[in-house]
Design a protein that fits this description.
single chain; 348 residues; mainly alpha; 2 domains; 18 helices; elongated; URB1_N; URB1 N-terminal domain-containing protein
């Protein structure tokens, strides 16, 4: 309760920076580790954190306080002296929105709509801060939470957000970041990097799976965000690949409610070429197994998306979607697959 009181009081003291109050509140919600310079540290339980969220939402059911003190500037003399506080702020807002969604769906929808209508310009600006990946991560995380509140909020997000802004377009080509290794001992793995690729995929999958038909059509359109997911799969971890192909398979490929022409837009030439590249990745065999499963569903199963002769399926497809030089390079690698009598049951 002390952290909530401090936040409420500091918010009213207009010139006073909010960095410490926001961080203290986030720690009390167990979103961040407790401070190490307090002696002794105050132990907090999950029940305490849950109670604190409920207390705040009882006072500001639509997150009014955070909408009022939303960070726009930083530096000496502003309410936020550190840019890193922006990431903490967004993390808290996302958490409170998700809690409110469980407590009161109507208030959560109003909360999310205010974020979309009043703060989207600021969120787009924060996406351009590429030197602060945690801020980008928290922006995308909040956007994903907003789209999941209801079909109304998802539709409003699609209407308001500028999907063509350079910062968002660039996200489609962001790659999975490998964990850094210690320079002296390659077996020691450092802290995992911020995975912008993962949170971007989650946002796009949320839009693709939205029950609202207009949102679903927007995501699935030619050159849309769903098709963009395959641009960087060759660097994805096995966990990311499994998530991506499983959820897209359920939402798109194996979904009888999705028209075939829409499926073809998503599972296009870029997709097939990227999946083929996964067959030749070294290391985890499960990556190749995942790729084979997708290719089977596209070309060789009874309900295959591409209806062409089995023995020539990949070669015919590639000849229509590739330049001659690309086709020769790729078909030379999959010749044994596409011309084998056993291609349906035993790829290799």
């Amino acid at each position: 309760m002390a952290a909530l009181r401090e936040l409420l009081l500091t918010a009213e003291r207009t010139p006073q920076p909010l960095d410490d109050a926001i961080l203290s509140f986030a720690r009390s919600l167990l979103l961040y580790p407790p401070a190490t310079n307090t002696s002794p540290p105050i132990p907090l339980s999950q029940d305490d954190a849950s109670s604190l969220s409920h207390q705040f939402l009882a006072i500001h059911p639509q997150g009014e306080l955070f909408l009022r003190v939303w960070p726009e500037n930083h530096g000496a003399g502003s309410r936020y002296e550190k840019r890193d506080s922006f990431a903490i702020f967004l993390h808290v807002v996302t958490h409170l929105l998700q809690v409110q969604q469980q407590l009161d769906a109507a208030q959560a929808e109003a909360f999310a709509l205010r974020v979309v209508r009043e703060k989207m310009v600021q969120l787009e600006k924060l996406l351009s801060w590429s030197d602060k990946p945690w801020i980008e991560f928290r922006v995308l995380e909040l956007m994903t939470a907003v789209t999941k509140v209801s079909t109304v909020t998802a539709r409003e997000f699609v209407r308001v957000f500028n999907f063509q802004c350079p910062a968002f377009v660039k996200l489609a080509t962001r790659r999975w970041k490998k964990s850094e290794e210690d320079g002296h001992d390659k077996t020691i793995e450092k802290h995992a990097p911020v995975q912008l690729r993962a949170v971007y995929v989650n946002l796009v999958l949320a839009l693709t799976a939205c029950p609202d038909k207009s949102v679903h059509r927007f995501a699935m359109k030619e050159g849309g965000v769903t098709a963009s997911l395959f641009k960087s799969v060759d660097d994805d971890s096995i966990e990311m690949l499994t998530t991506l192909f499983t959820r897209l398979g359920k939402t798109v490929l194996h979904n009888d409610d999705v028209e075939r022409k829409s499926k073809l837009v998503v599972y296009n030439g870029t997709c097939v070429h990227q999946v083929l590249a996964l067959l030749h990745m070294e290391g985890d065999a499960s990556v190749r197994d995942t790729a084979l499963g997708v290719l089977n569903a596209l070309f060789f199963e009874d309900s295959a998306l591409y209806v062409v002769p089995q023995k020539q399926a990949l070669r015919l497809f590639l000849s229509k979607t590739s330049a001659q030089s690309d086709e020769e390079a790729i078909t030379s690698r999959v010749y044994a697959v596409s011309d084998s009598d056993a291609c349906r049951d035993n790829w290799w």
